[in-house]
Structures
1.
Amino acid sequence: MSEIDLVDVVIGNYTQEKKRFSWRGPNKKQARLDYFLVSSDFQPMITSCDIGVAYRSDHSAVFLSFQLNTNEKGK
């Protein structure tokens, strides 16, 4: 991913092992099925990222909040 300048936002925001996985199966197997990839230029604008709870699916929603620069150019 670094070759095309993409960053996995979920891994970057979660150091806790529990939140890093979006799927849990039998025998304590865990996997990442859901990602949110952004350009490294966009990464500083991210204010929060969270993995939602999956009901009846093997996929979880990944929620991303960000703050755009609201300063007007030239002022």
Note: The longest strand covers residues 46-51.
2.
Amino acid sequence: MSRSLSDEQRRILNAVLQGDNVFYTGNAGTGKTYLLLKIISKLKSKFGKHEVAVTASTGLAAISIGGSTIHSFAGIGLAKGTKQDIALAVRANSKARKRWSKCKVLIIDEISQLSAEVFQILEFVARKIRPFHKTKSKLFFGGIQVIVVGDFGQIPPVGLGKHVHYCFDSELWVELFHEKGHHFVLTKIFRQNEARFLAALNECRKAYPNDEAIEFFQNLDGSNQEITLPFDGVEIVTTNSKADKINTKHLDTLISDKGMENHTYEAVDEGKPAFVKMFTKESNIPEKVQVAIGSKVILIKNVDGLANGLQGVVVDFQNGVDENGEKIKEKYPVVEFKKSFKLKKPFRKLMQPVEWFVTLDDEVLASRVQLPLRLGWAITAHRSQVSSRAKFNKCSDLITPLYLFLGDGTIVRAR
């Protein structure tokens, strides 16, 4: 069920393996994360686990790639103070100093949400912490290979000050990527396959979409269509509370009107409290999963060749199996995943708990064991970024062009 790399993805992988500093971007659905996971695997095989720093600008993105936030890795906290003061603080932090000293490759996902100011602090800290590399201490990032990934058409950077700039506004960015030709754009979209829809989505990445794109989305307004239960699509909304309300309504209908039994699964968390909180505050991994037969669900992790984002329906509950293949008492949902661009034909699978990690320097700081499922009648635009939808009802709640792009960028086809 997995696919091979496209030609343009292979070119990026080759540049990375040659030791180049690389920035690559692309529209939603071009396989940025899929490629990044391949890159991480190849680099760890080449250099070792401790030498490859896998980070992201947000906790949600970090958990998705099995890494940590860039702030945690770098030991810079909130990046308050001067570059010199921050570097001194990092030098005094033995664990952070050791991480920088060992690092051969620094990976940062969701680079659009990291400000130019923090990016430049990271570079300064790296040079100052790595003086024993005498021939490299004058190089950018102290000679560390830098790989950054993200879509600047999505969520902008955040920062402590009023004036926060994109990373590409800095001279450092130009030195690392543009002047040496290490800037790549993924263009092949695996998620959508309709030409007009693709063109309209690309227009939404701009500040001023053209009239044709505006007309296209206006003609898709499905607000006059009656939604019946069970609803065969996903509604993309702006807040978790709205998504929870819609999902609870549909689940309650299954339980009360159709007499389906509710099954509840609580997450099992371990690790340092500060990092365990990341699962609740910054990830799409629920503390509690409640499902019944007929529940619409979305897969939130790649499992046994099934891709993150697949839609499915709970059709049964069966006894789970242990690592030896023996049946256990606990029952888990059987999900029928629908045919989609990711799955050529419907497929049923017993869904058992899986484990997520927050790691730093290959040390597991926190873990969560939970079913890799969320109720799937509604989802927020931000959480929809890390998965792909086959159908949707409406995006009328997405009140800004940014939200519209985040929401529609995850959709396969328009109707």
Note: The chain has a mean pLDDT of 83.
3.
Amino acid sequence: MTLKAAEAASRIGWRIRSRIPYTPSPFRRTVIHQRFRASSRAHSRPTQVPFCPLTRRPAGHARRLSDVAAGKPLGSAARAARRTGADSSLFTGAIQYPKAVLYCARHTRVQRQALPTDRRLHRRREHSARPVGLPMHTQHPYILGTLSTGESVPMLQVDRRRHMAVLGQTGTGKTGLLLNLMRADLMGGAGFCFLDPHGDAAREIAALAPPEFRRNLIYLDPSDPTHVFGYNPLADIPEAERATTAANIVSAFKNIWGHSWGPNLEYILSNALRLLLDTRDQTLLGIPRLLADDSYREWLVKRCADPVVRQFWSQQFASWDARQRAEKTASVENKVGILLANPFLRSILCQNASTLDLARIMNEGKVLILNLSKGNLGTEPAHLLGALLVSGISQTAEARRNIPEAERRDFTLYVDEFQNFATDSFASILSEARKWRLSLVAVTQHVAQLSEPLQHAVFGNVGTIVAFRVGAQDAPMLAAELGLQNHRALRETNNFHAWLRLMRDGSPNQARLIQTLPPLPPGRRFNQMVALAHARYMLPRPLVEARIGAFFPATEPKRPRRKRRRDPDNRHRRPAKPGSPPFNSGLSAQ
């Protein structure tokens, strides 16, 4: 291993290049700044060889180099290995952070250049070298609960890829099971997304995030009064996926207004979305405007690449008179206008650029927690936003077909009350998302809340079923799915107990009664997660509203500029008011 001294920065580097002798500053703050800026790192694989800082004594530095070459742990890691009696191999790698003083003002120039710069290297102390909280392997088991004999019931990641359905009445323990599963994902470094239509569980799991994983956790609240994140479903869509994107958005709208949906509404809305997708920097605000503004619609048609869509707007729509346009577009304008009138939903969906990158979240194993509280957002806006996000995650997972299967990272989608966000994308996730490494954990209270096609999609594709206490209407159906002879067992199950049919190695096991894990203690880091989200993924709400307001044309025409007289004597003077004498006349107003 060789140490490569980085070029000294700031004033130290300037003195070295100018051959001016270095005089240490008497102020400790300046010394610490120089310690961080002038540095060197061991250029080797961080998982095998740790950082090797210099010490005060050359003999100590040489001894540390020999320890690194021999594969021995350093500093506080060595003390932790002796104290715990654990294998020293657990303490090798980039987790070695010696506790010794790393800087002395009387070091030589080469030593100053070789001091480490990474601030995190200095901040982490002895707790970083303990064997607690080390990253788990992707195949580590998830403990779902315990049997009556006290034996734990594990579930492997390969079995989770066949999805899981959790059913039960309110207060039976569904949320506790979800929190324990998500906590295991957090500790294992696995990525997931959680859509919570109530808000309490979202705040609780965000507060439980360990400090070392808080950078990978994104907590977003659409009803935040001061900041707002951006998710534009029309932004940066490849040309080959625009038709699918338009169909997914139409399906999300149809999920909300299925009782008043018609073919004419779907036809016009689909063509409007296709027209907006072919032009950059467009949002859902363009739908009502293109229906009413002829110049804006013509500007979009010129940039449309699809000949069928272009023919609809330039010929068929243009042939309608004012009365026909009003009749056929009224339903589209009413439904889209009602949703966009909600300030929370408008500020999220109508930004030109998205601050939420779903592809990066899934491929890098980040955690996305969305508080879709219906009490703050409203029922229909919360359902639409959740349905659009589910469609976006499904489409992002399908885009992984260009990534080799061995490099696809597992990602789990947790959806509470999933019947509210169920679109055609749910059937696609249940049937095809397994090969894209997208797992689904769907939670609902009653089977009757699901439509008949959705029931067939769920029970026909879900591998693991967890059934808490259910009502008399759902018990016979679930008993047939679980293979139970008496459906009364499902109606008399105690709280925090559930019947589990586990998928193991591609085949379902016999249903067994388990006791779920106890609830987690409350966390204390919720405010930190909110502050991080404000700084990294959200914008001030007044700024976003101002940008959205600039999209609409001015309601009043601009006043023409007044032409100034070319008389050189009066060129820079204001015109006199009516009834007042000239400025230089020497007269005063009567």
Note: The two ends are 96 Å apart (CA to CA).
4.
Amino acid sequence: MKLNTKKILTCLTVILLIISTIPITVSASEDRGRDTDDKRPEIAKNKSLNESEKENQEEELEEREEKIERKQERIEEKIENKTEKREEKLEKKRERIENKNEKLEEKLEERKEKIERKHERVEERIKKRKEQLENARNNYAKAKSNFHSINKKVSGNKLNPNSEKVINATKNYLNSTLDYMIEHLENKKTNINASNANFTDKSIEDLNEYINELKQKRVELKSAETREEISEISDEIREIWRDAQTNSNSIAIKTVNERINEHLEKSKSISLRIEKEIKQLEAEGKNVSDVEKLLNGYKEKISNIKEHQSNAEKIYSNATDEKSIKDAKLKLQKAISELKEANIILKEIFKQIKDYRNDSIKLDGQKDVNASGDGTAVLSGNLDINISTADAKMVIKDFSGDAKVNITGNYSKVNRNKNKPEGLKDNRALVYHGLIGNINVSGSSLTVMVNGENIELNADGVGSIVFSEGDFGIENSSNNLKVGLDEDIKNTTSSNTSSQYNNTTDNTSVSTVGDE
């Protein structure tokens, strides 16, 4: 009983403890409920703030995107404007080049026509003068033959020397002699005019004086009636002719000397340019010993020419007779012979340097190069190229993928994808046939080959141009040996010094009455 009571008490104690904890739990639950209720507005507030921030961020992002789009549009617009300006600039440049080429062609054509007309007039005058000289020579020969026949009869006492027949035959002979002399001097004048010598005016003036003196003797001869009067006039004619011949020889030597001096003056600059080119080729590791030997031979010929010319001048300046004059002429003929040989050597030098150089031109970005002609040109580098052609083939290789090609005209494109816009990004080699028109090619790493006739090109940038065949004229190239030397050789060898020498030193033998 006592045990049960104890158990009952224990149970009651436990129950009381349980009951006492219930309010605390309820209170805690209520507190938690209150806390939750208190936090709900704050959570809602925070949620609202997060949504607002998100909206702000989205707006900022949109603004940023719009800003980027506007910036991109401005950049694209700027690029487009720049491209348009560049295209306009290129178009203007092309127009300037075309206008320049057209004007140049017109000037060259006018100059060519003018030279041709002048040449035709000169040739016609020379031809006419030669015909007149030949007629005068024939008349002189007939009159001379007739005079000899009459003179024989006089010597055989078959005719009176003072008879009218003898007087008329003698006067006729002297008149034909005067005609021949005058025509001969007129022919000299024509040849001197054709030579374009610096002393042409003075020489013509001197010859005109002799011609007028001879014409005056013709007037005097007409009124002469006696053999003594005719003989006196004949002596005067002989004296005039002797002076005229001496003067003609002087003119001849001056003319040839002037031409030789022109060649010698050109030879100085040509030698210097060849030496410069030899040094450049040696610096590139090329063996140019053959060219050096040729150059030494050329210099030796020039030295010989100077020596012969100097000797001729010394002999002529002290000449007192015909033999001295002939010796002076002989020295000049030797100088002319050496000059011909020097020009042959010069052509060979040019040929060998051309083979070494293959007509290469370097572009340094400072000057553009204009070229025109027929054949093949290969352009490489960072270039802006303008080409005009009437019929050509063109191959373009783009190694950096940034090349631009603009063609105005007709052509057939060999590459596939013919409908693609011009450009090389997707197709790095383009081949065109039958090109007629204007082409602009630009890029940072290009190789452009163009082959055809009537090609005109302008290249600007850094790189090189190689003319592998054909004939091109080039402007604005500091290292263009081909055109410079070729032009010098042409000018040096085109002057027919030997022909001029022969024309001005033709000694016509004319006898008068006293010589018979």
Note: The two ends are 205 Å apart (CA to CA).
